[in-house]
Amino acid sequence: MNLIYLTILFPLLGFLLLSFSCGYWSDKTSALIGVGSIGLSSIVTILIGYSFFINNQIPYTQVLWNWIHINNFNVSIKFILDGLSLIMLCIVSMIGFLIHLFSSWYMQGKEGFSRFFAYTNLFIASMIVLVLADNLILMFLGWECVGFCSYLLIGFYYSSEKNCMAAIKAFVTTRIGDVFLIIALFMIYNELGTLNFSDISNIAKLSLIHNNYTISLITLMLLAGAVGKSAQLPLQTWLPDAMAGPTPVSALIHAATMVTAGVYLIARIHCLFLLTPKILYLISIIGVITLTIASCSAIVQTDVKRILAYSTMSQIGYMFVALGSKAWDVAVFHLMTHAFFKALLFLSSGALILECNHERNIFKMGGLKKNLPFLYVCFLVGGSSLASIPLITSGFYSKEKIIFSSLSNDDIIIMLVCLCGTLLTAIYTFRMIFNIFHGEEKIIIKKKYTGINYYIPLITLLLLSTFIGALIKPSLENIYPKHNFHETSKWTLEIISSILIVVGILMSRILFLKKININNSTYGKFLHALWYQAWGFDWIYSKLFIKPYISIASILKNDPLKNLFDFPILLLRLVNKVLLISESGYLRWYILSISISTLALITIILIKII
């Protein structure tokens, strides 16, 4: 297990090699380095995971060096391997490897091939730092690097202003949450005197914290940071626009890295949240509201990637519900299964978009089942897992536990909203599948060459999206208490949920066959416009924050204080222009200048002597 550092070193070396190559290497060499570095990281992950289970799942720490040492403040580059960090490491490295392997096919012939893999290698390295960090400072380093990499990847096609604006929006919105996270770090150190996870856990377990108001404020700040990263209400607006980057980037952000970071933060430092029941309940409320508004928005979207983006917001909402219900292990379990089927759906959508000549509107597709049977199976399995089809999909086993955890916590209203969410999820998921693969053929398919780097990732993720993926149970017994669900209630809830899922699929089929449009009534037009524009959050934020900020900035750009700061610059420019006049290039001018200067110098000396 002393090889933990290699899981970060390999992707980091891949990033450095690809960066310094400046794009001069061939695509094959760049792909070999970009994909190979993540592959080596995955192999090391398997080895240390095997060693972890052999050693009876005893947590292991590795100290590389002392990072910060100021008086009593001491922070080390220290990694921890326990059940939670191991499952996250497996998701990041292994799902990341499959996405990288698929990307070597997807990015063929595209501009910025080596640059793409340089960014994604740094992305993976940053996320591994985040999940293995033993303290909040090191975790925050990975946290910020992940945000920076997402900015680079979302704005990868920077020649388009729209893509650049989407990257800036994601960067600024997530930074809002990060500011609150920084405040939380300062408050934790001020209150507890440490930023180490194990020390914080020990202090919380021994009930050595007496200031409940401060702890409530700390957990609220931590929640704000998690909300920003995981695209939950009210900082959820950046995620749909993040579809501007290459599709494998969307798979990476949604399945293996960025949006899961907020869930991991709360799960890792759950000991503090246990001391603040009201904040835990707030987490559940945020989750159910986000999953509801995201599901409604997904129902009316036409862009296949935006539908999947809203589904991610919805599924992260379910994870927040589990966290708020103290079902930490269930939240991590759904995080894992979600990584399987969401990576499958995004990679499949990337292949679909390429096959359809970069068309993303589901209503301009149709009848593709015969021409693209493999992608049809991928969408069907991934969509079924997203909709939680009973027994045969991995999503069913994790999502049902989340719904039951809210019932076990006596949150009946939250449970009912979650059940409604399963109905909405089934509707928008199969609405997408029916419109793309069934009905009249509307688009001419141009077959693109496919190879082993195309099939292996999709087939692997397809298998993991079935019940096979649910057999991989995160080993979290030593971290969280085990839940003992009442079997009778559990079966009853699963039957109700299954009925709702079937009803949702039938509704989407009826809507597809009868071509029913929500815009047929005034009320329907209003709902369609509201949901399509993501409930108007962008418009509200633009009116409340963006436009006032721009107006204030335009007023202050000519303020006297700015002119005062600009005066030295203007003076230097004036001196520069005067000195440039003296550089005429004529020898007689230089002799005259020297003579005048000498005469002036002599005159000054004589005046001082007299």
TrEMBL record:
TM segment ranges: 6-25, 32-54, 83-104, 116-133, 139-158, 170-189, 249-267, 279-300, 331-354, 374-392, 412-434, 454-472, 492-512, 587-607
Membrane topology value: Multi-pass membrane protein
Segments forming domain NADH:quinone oxidoreductase/Mrp antiporter transmembrane: 133-425
Compartments where found: Endomembrane system; Membrane
Pfam families hit by this protein: Proton_antipo_M, Proton_antipo_N
Origin superkingdom: Bacteria
Keywords for the protein's UniProt record, in alphabetical order: Membrane, Transmembrane, Transmembrane helix
Functional summary from the UniProt entry: NDH-1 shuttles electrons from NADH, via FMN and iron-sulfur (Fe-S) centers, to quinones in the respiratory chain. Couples the redox reaction to proton translocation (for every two electrons transferred, four hydrogen ions are translocated across the cytoplasmic membrane), and thus conserves the redox energy in a proton gradient.
The protein's name: NADH-quinone oxidoreductase subunit L
Species whose genome carries this gene: Candidatus Pantoea edessiphila
Lineage per the UniProt record: Bacteria, Pseudomonadati, Pseudomonadota, Gammaproteobacteria, Enterobacterales
